[in-house]
Amino acid sequence: MSFKLNMKQAAKEKGSNIVLALDLPPSKPEELLQAAQKILRAVHEEICALKINRHLVLPLGLSGDLKKLLKQAQDYGMPTIMDCKINDIGNTNRIIAEYYFKAGFNAVTANPFVGWKDGLENVFETAKHMNRGIILLVYMSHKGAWEGYGQETLEQKTGKPIPQYRVFAQKALEWGADGAVVGATYPEKIREVYSILEDKVPIYAPGIGAQGGKIETAVRSRASYLIVGRAITLADDPAQAAKDFKLAARASLNDAN
Questions:
Q1: What is the structure's pLDDT at 48?
Q2: CA-to-CA distance for 239 and 199, rounded, in angstroms?
Q3: Any residues with CB less than 8 A from the CB of 121 and at least 6 apart, and which?
Q4: How confident is the model over 54-68, as pLDDT tens digits?
Q5: Overall domain count for the chain
Q6: Residue 238: inside a domain, yes or no?
Q7: What CA–CA distance (Å, rounded) separates 136 from 172?
Q8: Would the pLDDT of 256 be above 80?
Q9: pLDDT at site 11
Q10: Exposure of 113 by Cβ count < 10 A (0-12 exposed, 13-18 middle, 19+ buried)?
Q11: pLDDT tens, position by position, 154-183
Q12: Residues annotated as part of the active site
């Protein structure tokens, strides 16, 4: 099964389109693992997938403790995403992707700024060979995103000015990406990117909660998956917080339809 279909099935089975960003504050590796496993146990019925970045990979490593966490997610029936934002030359990118895929991740994020030839082409080839997914960054959720993703560039075919994120949305279609990241903090960008992607490439919207993104506007703007981190992981009751987000997303989807 492809990653895109795996995500769709997990969301249907869980009745949730919430992706947990399991980014925890620095601590000793053994304490980090225990905290991560505890949160995942508490919220697994309310979320459809797990996203991990370097908050956990650097202290836990790619073998041993991290694999225990990935196995736990797998046992709960949820895909796992490594938010590594691959952004180097082709050969390095390929090796990075291979390491994460062999560790057990179902997908990685990648930055289209490096281009295709001798850039992300190797990553897409590796993902295809290993039946894994690639999610492209189209417009990130932080305040400075406009400096890169929002800058104007010239469209190759017409020579007319075009925002960089629109180019990246077009690349997501052209390259056959399994997802596109657009910050929930910029619902107008989600709508604009959706007008390009339609339902061919699902939109992943991070930045909900701690960064100020709203479930309702992200859903109405046609985000497929909502990425929530600190608003769940640092909550007094992570399970209740995750459930609240799941129900809010479901209600917003019903309203939008």
A1: 97
A2: 30
A3: 90
A4: 989 999 998 888 999
A5: 1
A6: yes
A7: 7
A8: no
A9: 96
A10: middle
A11: 777 787 888 999 999 999 999 999 999 999
A12: 85
